[in-house]
Amino acid sequence: TPVLADPLGLGRDALPEEIAAWDVDVMPDGTGLPEGSGDVMTGEEVFLEKCAACHGDFAEGLGNWPPLAGGEDTLDRKDPVKTVGSYWPHLSTVWDYVNRSMPFGQAQLLTPDETYAITAYILYSNYLVEEDFVLSRENFSEIAMPNAEGFIIDDRSDAEYPLFTVEACMQDCKESVEITMHASVIDVTPGEAADEEEASPASNEEEPAVDP
Amino acid sequence: MSKSVPTSRRGILRAGLAAGALLPAASLSARAQGGPDPLITEVQDWASYTGEGVDETPYGLPIHFEADVIRRNVPWLTADPISSINFTPIHALDGTITPAGCAFERHHSGAIELAKPDYRLMINGLVDRPLVFTYADLERFPRHSGVYFCECAANSGMEWAGAQLNGSQYTHGMIHNMEYVGVSLKTLLDEAGIQPEGKWLYVEGADASSNGRSIPLEKALDDCMIAFKANGEALRKEHGYPVRLIVPGWEGNLWVKWLRRIEVTSGPVESREETSKYTDTLDNGISRKWTWVMDAKSVVTAPSPQSPIQHGKGPLVITGLAWSGRGVITRVDVSTDGGKNWQTARLAAPGQRMAMTRFWLEHDWNGEEMLLQSRAIDETGYVQPTKEALRDIRGENSVYHNNGIQTWWVREDGSAENVEVS
Fold it and tell me: What are the residue boundaries of the Oxidoreductase molybdopterin-binding domain, all occurrences included (chain B) (predicted)?
């Protein structure tokens, strides 16, 4: 591996306009937010026009499309409902992701004011602000997300690693072995022509098992 | 015999492929009667006529007999096929290198088409010189290479609550292993000059999803690289053409494709892909974040539900793959009785750091049912845990990072099913 002490002089200086065009990420403390503002009612209009076809009129999610609201107090239950309100730790992520990557299939077409308004509407849909709320760069960091304290940094080195580094048993490791669960899906078998169309989980159609 | 050959050969030619396909059966029945094998005793077309010329296929695909060795999708997993996943046919592969044409895909806004002349890479943030590179610039840097596995954080995620999908392609196929050539990230960052306050990188792609993620600078300077070649050729479109990020041993989501920007920051951005997604919820409702490393894992790829035993009793090759994001795979054990007893398998080659390792176990199968398992051990002493051991700590809602031991129930007829055992 070459380790270079001196630059090779490749590339050129990035211009301020270029950096401004591509560097639009927003940090948890609001750094990176542009000037602008939007209120809940404007957000509702924009949301109904540009977002509700997938996410529902009330941000509740349609079909397999992600719900953005609801799911309060479900994180410690079976099949938790993870939404902006129930799960997301930072409001900055909402603004950043909507601004950069939504609507799905027509990303990066929202104005800053529209993104502020949509973000305000998502907060309202999660009962986190009143209907006359106006979100702006100035009051952005005052919004507390319900699950802000719900995350810990990867603790596998303490919680798992010591348990899984003991010497592995090789012989007579358990008394008996029983099958406790079978694959519940009628799955594809290579060579069967109807594979692709018919592969579906009989018991699980109303919700995806995982979002990879 | 020789007199009859021309007639039968013309007959086969007229009947086309269908007649040709019957030959093995005829051969088997002749052999069953103790007679000579006509595939040997009769001159076959391919031993008489010519094959295709060298100008037939400027860039070839696998022979059509291998048409089932393809990526497969499970439509119900995601809302639509644009932000979705497909699966590498690991049940049918051997060795360790994944052919790029059937190596899994995971996109969040589809596989984009980005030409080299249109490609730009920006380095900005806490650097001395914010820079823009063209693709041609990148090819002028000193090269760096390595073989690494890229495993989706969600690989085996559908199996958290129990056995669900029936085949190693589906349970373990969100993975590929390629030989990459490109430029080390350290070399690129040296060109811009990192300022002392710079502690993290934020990396994002050129696609609409951007897939932005934060990476601590220590990892970036250690072994990360940008790649423009994989398995000898340019990256496939669906794998990030013309440039992607390689993050050895870490979850696939960090391997940003169509990489367009590297920002040196003082802290993590906490983007969507490291808050809403790629965080792992525990039983108590608290979620782990920044679970970057992929722990040691393995799977028997054959026999498996998609690769049943079809040859009857006797010698059987049990084979599979093992890998660890913490380093080198040093050992793989295989059990045929659901984990009561284990034998150490043979590694096809010494384990390579953060790369897939092939294992084989030669077995004399007596036709009895088997509960096949494999257990990977890496150089840090980490032993791949059972799914129960993982669930005891995490519960069933982690979504990501399921590296639990897989069990295949092989029946007396050689067919196999995805099961869980006590």
Answer: 115-269
